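Hi everyone,

Forwarding the result from last night's run.
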Amino acid sequence: MFEEALREIDNHKVIIIHRHTNPDGDALGSQIGLKHIILNNFKDKEVYMVGDPAKRYDFMDDSVMDEVEDDKYKDALAIVLDTSAKSLINDERYMSANKTIRFDHHIFVEKICDIEYVDTSFESCCGLITKFAKVNNLKLNELAAKSLYTGMVTDSGRFRYDSTTSQTFDMASFLMNEKFDTGSIFTNLYANELDSVKLRAEFTLKIKLTEKNVAYIYTTYDEFKASGADSFTISRGMVNTMGDLKGVDIWVNFTEIENAVLCELRSTLYNINQIAVNYGGGGHLKASGATLKNKEEAMAMLEDLNNLIGA
């Protein structure tokens, strides 16, 4: 299993690891984890990570991205992680690499790389990378294991989401054979600054419901700028303020940024991915995202989500 990936890693001295923009714990965890798996198991490799800053996840060890010159790509292997569509990849120079590989767990949208491993049975890309290491008897170190575990925790919602399976716990158990402090992971992920708690309270008061109980928050550009927070914090960070509302099975967070509206869609029962794809986005059956042109398009999406209820 993964024979082509092993061969290409072995055949390339320079390996550059990409992932989606605005990284979450899974994107960074898989990136850092794979980097150190390669360094720990293959001799004389130059392994680089590229992308925008870690921001919220900068507590993760080795989360600072590398500055890579264009000419490095000429004979390099580029590996794209945790990304379903070309438009979501932070650095498009992967296309100039000698060979490309993708590891992903999202619903397939389009072919991105020469070699592709897309498996939606995994709760996270970190789970898929862990499987890659386990079945090929690749050695882990503490940093690789901790990074991959962090990504599994974030994308499974602390093992709460229904994407969590026996496979998830099998991979988590494999990682925990390496000794690392799980407590520090949860502290960094879920300990809140007072300002963050206050911000969530403000957003809770903004929640509205459609006639069929689709919960939504719409943040204008002026409100976003006045918050002082970055777009990731407002968009993805606030979507689950609606996640535990009784009687709400679909919720969506709209955030205006300059010249666009970020949308985070979630559900406990319905396949909202089909709607995200219709609007140029993607993700999972019950957790997806998209970037829209304006509020008018956002309200059209909201109506589509409303029409899913009882359909």
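DSSP finds eleven helices and eleven strands in the chain.

Cheers,
N.
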